[in-house]
Write a structure and sequence with these properties.
The chain is of the alpha+beta class and 626 residues long. It has 4 domains: 4-90, Alpha-Beta Complex (DNA Primase, Chain A); 106-235, DNA primase DNAg catalytic core, N-terminal domain, CATH 3.90.980.10; 244-448, 3-Layer(aba) Sandwich (Dna Topoisomerase Vi A Subunit, Chain: A, domain 2), CATH 3.40.1360.10; 458-619, DNAb Helicase, Chain A (Orthogonal Bundle), CATH 1.10.860. It is 51% helix and 12% strand. It is built from 27 helices and 16 strands. The strands form 4 sheets. The protein has a 5-stranded antiparallel β-sheet. α10 (270-278) links the parallel β12 (264-267) and β13 (284-286). α3 (67-75) runs parallel beside α23 (511-519). The chain is globular and about 90 Å long.
Length: 626
């Protein structure tokens, strides 16, 4: 857990205008800065950044937050990643636990990372300069229909033919960082005179595609050979900066396109991504010569709730799609759409768009196969479904995939559809697939999938609104009040999470920090409407954002608001508890033929309800019918 005091110090040190200004063109407008919102498509600026509040807010779509929240929302970083990124820019070290014995200290790791990023940046600059005079490479790119503008946008370059061209980019060609970054290779045999091993460039005579992380830093390269040669594409090796199983080519460049299009398009190659961006699909990304992994899917779902995977229609494409399907299963929540597009065998996305046009390709995307349909088609493919053995084989193949799915409505629908195909009941298929058994946690469990928005209304809504506006209230609730709040029907998980964050923040609890913390929550959709409501309609929102602890008048106003809101929350807890007692009594009496124990329980609940009713009446809350 990162101390709240450190977060406060960090946000006091960084300039949100500078942070947002890296990604959005801002212009001064009075006390604030204005720009086009990066979170929705607009022509007139409604996005404002306040240097005094250290807060951004869009009056069009409601996006809001601190510098931490902006990096989470725009760059797709996790909470800790965003804090670390800002801390580095401010020259601060994020407080951490003592590292495990034998592990390098955090400061040492950061220093190594920064050194390798600098090496990769210098190499990328060198390759870009080389492209300007490499006519065969330029002609190749022109032959693929690419313009100079799109090549510059993706930072394309050229690695000249020859063994040690990078000597021109680095003063010390034998620097160990060149090896660690994967830019050079050392031969297994030493020099004939017994000296050091011979070193040479990994990439030679190749078009260079820089691979960036979500911060825009170059962390690896993909190189496409010119003319004949193997391998056709060569990637950087695994390094401290780069892991193929968790990075996607073009994600940094595609973030705006993904938000505007409303979906991410996953294709198979670097050139597809670059060509599609030029042809009107700037929302395309690609895996890096490896199968799609749960980490890839997780990164995409930080950007959008809809992902379309595009594959060739041949056997290899089908195998790649099957692996992508398996990677998607743990993330298949009810509010997400994961689809699979299969183009004709002779086409990739680039060639399809050039032959049939953007509208035709967009129509193919719209008709992409949903995950449910693809899963069922895969498990029954090649099976003799008219025979018991074929149906049994289909269920055997479906079992691990069904177990990987979250226990939600989508899984229930897939179960029903599969039961219909194999001629069994839903209960029988669920039993055969052992769906009641706990699923073993996998690497995807580190970041829970977002849950469907659950509307919080009435008394619970007002209580939640007060806790979000004034999180310090959570520290003033008694143990009994907290227990009752966390036991509220339908919203227990939400209240438990909010109260826990209030407690974690302690005396530094603040609306702005609550917004950032809950942005990373799997229940974030349930909070977002309330945050926007507060910023748009609550008369105290201005005080929340402009609060100055040195201003006695503001401190007095806030303390008064906290007293009033705490009283409201306590009253709401009693009212929700009263409603819960009424529901419990109703459920007991609906049973009929009650046992002596059940009658005694009903009597106890009735006495508790009546006492609460008197308390509510004396407090003037009303609404206690029943």
């Amino acid at each position: 857990m990162i101390p709240q005091a450190f977060l406060q110090e960090l946000l006091n040190r960084v300039d949100i205008v500078e942070v947002v200004g890296r990604y959005v063109q801002l212009k001064k407008g009075g006390a604030n800065f204005m720009g086009l919102c990066p979170f929705h498509n607009e022509k007139s600026p409604s996005f404002t950044v306040s240097p005094t509040k250290q807060f951004y807010h869009c009056f069009g779509c409601g996006a809001h937050g601190t510098a931490i929240g902006f990096l989470m929302e725009h760059a797709g970083l996790g909470f800790v990643e965003a804090v670390e990124d800002l801390a580095r820019s401010a020259g601060l070290s994020v407080p951490r636990e003592t590292p495990v014995g034998g592990a390098p200290a955090a400061a040492q790791q950061r220093q190594q990372t920064l050194g390798l990023v600098d090496v990769m940046t210098r190499a990328s600059d060198y390759y870009r300069r080389q492209l300007r005079s490499a006519m065969p490479a330029i002609e190749y790119l022109k032959g693929r229909g690419l313009t100079g503008e799109i090549a510059a946008h993706f930072g394309l370059g050229y690695a000249p033919d020859g063994w040690q061209n990078l000597e021109a980019a680095f003063s010390d060609y034998r620097d160990d960082q060149l090896m660690e970054a994967g830019l050079v290779i050392e031969s297994e045999k030493g020099e004939r005179d017994g000296g050091s091993k011979r070193r040479y460039d990994r990439f030679r005579d190749r078009i260079m595609f820089p691979i960036r992380n979500t911060k825009g830093q170059v962390i690896a390269f993909g190189g496409r050979v010119l003319g004949a040669g193997e391998p056709k594409y060569l990637n950087s090796p695994e390094t401290p900066l780069f892991s193929k199983g968790s990075e996607l080519y073009g994600l940094f460049e595609a973030r705006g396109g993904i938000r505007e299009a409303g979906y991410a398009l996953v294709v198979e190659g670097y050139m597809d991504v670059v060509a599609l961006a030029q042809l009107g699909f700037p929302n395309a990304v690609a895996t890096l010569g490896t199968a799609c992994t749960p980490m890839h899917v997780q990164k995409l779902l930080r950007q959008t709730e809809t992902v379309v995977f595009s594959f060739d229609g041949d056997a290899a494409g089908r195998r790649a799609a099957r692996r992508a399907l398996e990677a998607c299963l743990p993330h298949a929540d009810d509010n997400r759409s994961l689809k699979f597009l299969f183009l004709p065998t002779q086409h990739d996305p680039d060639s399809f768009v050039r032959e049939y046009g953007t509208e035709a390709f967009a129509a193919e995307v719209a008709k992409a196969m949903p995950l449910s349909q693809f899963l069922i088609s895969e498990v029954i493919a090649g099976k003799e479904m008219h025979q018991p053995e074929g149906r049994a084989r289909a269920l055997f193949e479906a079992k691990p995939m069904l177990q990987a799915l979250p226990a939600n409505a989508l899984r229930g629908q897939i179960l029903q559809a599969l039961a219909d195909r194999v001629g069994s009941s839903l209960e029988e298929v669920a039993s055969l697939c052992e769906l009641a058994a706990a699923r073993r946690p996998g690497p995807w469990d580190k970041a829970p999938a977002k849950r469907e928005k659950r509307r919080v209304v009435g008394t619970a809504h007002r209580a939640l609104q007060n806790l979000l506006m004034y999180p310090s209230i959570g520290n003033d609730l008694t143990a009994d009040e907290t227990k009752l709040l966390q036991g509220v029907n339908y919203h227990a998980e939400i209240f438990e999470e909010v109260v826990q964050h209030c407690r974690d923040m302690g005396g530094e609890a603040d609306f702005r920090f609550m917004s950032d913390r809950l942005r990373a929550s799997p229940n974030s959709a349930s909070y977002e409407d309330i945050f926007r409501e507060i910023l748009s309609f609550d008369e105290n929102a201005r005080d929340l954002l402009l609060f100055d602890p040195q201003d006695e008048a503001q401190v007095e106003r806030r303390e008064e608001q906290i007293r009033l809101r705490l009283a409201e929350v306590r009253s709401a807890i009693r009212k929700m508890h009263y409603d819960g007692l009424c529901e419990a009594l109703e459920a007991i009496f609906k049973q009929g033929g009650l046992s002596p124990d059940e009658l005694r329980r009903a009597a106890a609940l009735s006495r508790e309800r009546d006492e609460l009713k008197r308390q509510l009446a004396s407090a003037g809350t009303g609404g206690t019918s029943g």
